[in-house]
Amino acid sequence: MNVRPLTTSRELAALESAWNDLDAGVPFRSFAWLTTWWQCYGDDAQGANPDRRELLVLAVEDPQTGETIAIAPWFVDRTRAEGNVIRWLGSGEVCSDYLSVLCAEGREGEVAAALADWLVDPAETCWTAIDLGDVATDDALVALLAEELRARGASVHRRAGTTCWRLELSTDWETYLKRLSKTRRKRTRGLLRDWFDCGRAELIRLTSVEDVEQAMPSFEELHQKRRRSLGQAGCFASPRFARFLRTVAPRMAAEGRLEIAQLSIDGRTAAFDFNLLGRETIYSYQSGLDPATLEQQPGHLITIAELRQAIERKFTAYDFLRGDEPYKHNWRAAPQETTHIRVVANRTRARLAHMVWNARQQTRDWARTIRDTTVDAREQLVARAKGLMWGGKPG
User: Residue 326: inside a domain, yes or no?
Assistant: First the structure.
């Protein structure tokens, strides 16, 4: 196998077709999603390189045909404390789920070996760690790559990653309703009757580039309103994230991989869902709702309408993505566990840097647990006060 490093955005452009052929229909792995991320978070961000990041995408080619059979979508994060760490494109605050090395089916073993050989060759790159966060537990290729690197002297460390929640859809709406509890089933039918069947509520799917661009400011406004009502900053408080989502939305829409679901109640926009589309799966990436409409339960209404439409459109799954909010389980989504894999080079400095990283990570985990517990308690108190504990999407 030939491994070819790509270190500029111009080099990536020639790989777009092969990239999308290999992404397995997962929008977070798509060329548009990950190259836009690099534009906003990498060395192209505002013409500067504030984080000392360098692109390192590895294309694995069949030596006989010249065909690209695998792509490792990585960059190198050069830091004083941790050294040179290889990470996923799309990582960090964007919260891209289901990232992986893209690979033609059946070629995983040889690709893992080829990547490992290239990575341990001192003439190619000098890294202290390869940080592969939130890898699906059944990701065979990443597991093989970790073992190949272990066999070449590196140490491999695993810890639990974030949990995603995936709902396998039934073939028809009534069959799905039977999976719900008796109380939830009755409540769902009542909301459909009282809001949608009588025309008071309507769900519109915005799919064209023009419609998506027009909806983005309103979606951003409602997202921020809801987050601020909960005492949170909201995703769009980050200028980089705001730039990323505004840029990637029309690109994904142009490829048919994005739709914005807009819920109207009595003629007023009450909620949005920003959904990414896979081949057979809808990924619910981000949402926003108007806090002034909470008594009408817009989170419940938009979820009900989306699930029913997803079944009618013959999607096989609806993925709520990361986060352990109770409403996901209530809709009968099942947890999808992930693993954080960190490979440490067989060098003294790399091992010392890993010790520093591990200590910081433990501190962050503790702080996150305290924060999440506080936020959950606050949201439950607000929900009880408004009679919303039935379990809908919080926005």
Answer: no
